[in-house]
Design a protein that fits this description.
Number of helices: 7
Oligomer: single chain
Strand order of the largest sheet: 1-2
Low-confidence stretches: none
Shape: globular
Structural class: mainly alpha
Mean pLDDT: 92
Helix content: 55-70%
Strand content: under 5%
Number of strands: 2
Largest sheet: 2 strands, antiparallel
Radius of gyration: 19 Å
Number of domains: 2
Length: about 250
């Protein structure tokens, strides 16, 4: 398991390097050159579903006949991915927009490996002494849980602001304002980064760390591209607004 996690981290670092030269075709960056596309809503549902289903499976098998508190980690993961798989696609107002099938397939691969690594580790840990009652008073849990919940709140609130920018049949892009959008262009991505860093601190295992590294590797370049896109497409875009971290980058 450790070897696979180290390999997974190495792949994440290589992905980060590649994303300095290639713009992942999400949303505003989608282009016909990426080949066959499907509905944006269905794309989100299909590519995120494996992470939800795999973790539900491991959750069901892990909690049988154990008093481990590992269920907390499973539940937090499932809540996040239920929102991302079911709630988010139903709420976004992007009916005519498309997502490249290549992105959907690559995301499915990522979610299968990522959820498999994390779910398998947590299921095995349920039989051990890693997540017993004493874990609830550990520094890892007491620090990681509020960080995770803070990130989730930032992510959900920011997503809601972006969704509400589109009224009626509008599918265009607008300058988001309010909340952390006054400071950064992508607080939704910042929230997700904070979320999985909190999870890694709370879980304190290598697969969880690998997920945090992957989140940074994927979302930092995307946030930088989003910021650049806003500056290039909106003359009135707030010049003092940063890409991802208030006052820094």
């Amino acid at each position: 398991m450790n070897t696979l996690s180290y390999i997974w981290i190495a792949v994440a670092l290589l992905t980060y390097v590649s994303l300095q030269f290639v713009t992942a075709p999400f949303g505003r960056h989608t282009h016909e050159k990426w080949g066959t596309s499907i509905s944006n809503k269905w794309g989100w549902f299909i590519m995120e579903l494996p992470s939800l289903m795999i973790m539900c499976y491991f959750f069901y098998t892990a909690i049988q006949g154990t008093d481990s508190y590992v269920w907390i980690l499973f539940l937090l993961w499932i809540v996040h991915y239920f929102n991302r798989t079911i709630v988010y696609p139903l709420r976004i107002k992007t009916t005519p927009k498309k997502m490249p099938l290549l992105i959907v397939c690559s995301a499915i691969f990522f979610n299968v490996v990522n959820a498999g690594l994390n779910g398998n580790f947590l299921a095995e840990a349920a039989a051990g002494d890693m997540y017993t009652a004493s874990w609830l008073s550990s520094t890892h849990f007491l620090m990681g849980l509020p960080i995770f919940l803070l990130g989730m709140w930032i992510n959900w609130k920011s997503d809601d602001i972006l969704i509400q920018l589109r009224k009626g049949g509008d599918t265009g892009y607008h300058i988001p304002r309010g909340f952390l959008f006054e400071f950064v262009s992508s607080p939704n991505l910042l929230g997700e980064i904070i979320e999985w860093i909190g999870f890694a601190v709370m879980a304190w295992n290598l697969p969880a760390l690998s997920f945090a590294v992957w989140t940074l590797a994927n979302l930092v370049p995307r946030a930088m591209r989003h910021h650049r896109w806003y500056l290039e497409n909106f003359r009135a875009y707030p010049i003092k607004r940063k890409a991802l971290i208030p006052y820094l980058i």
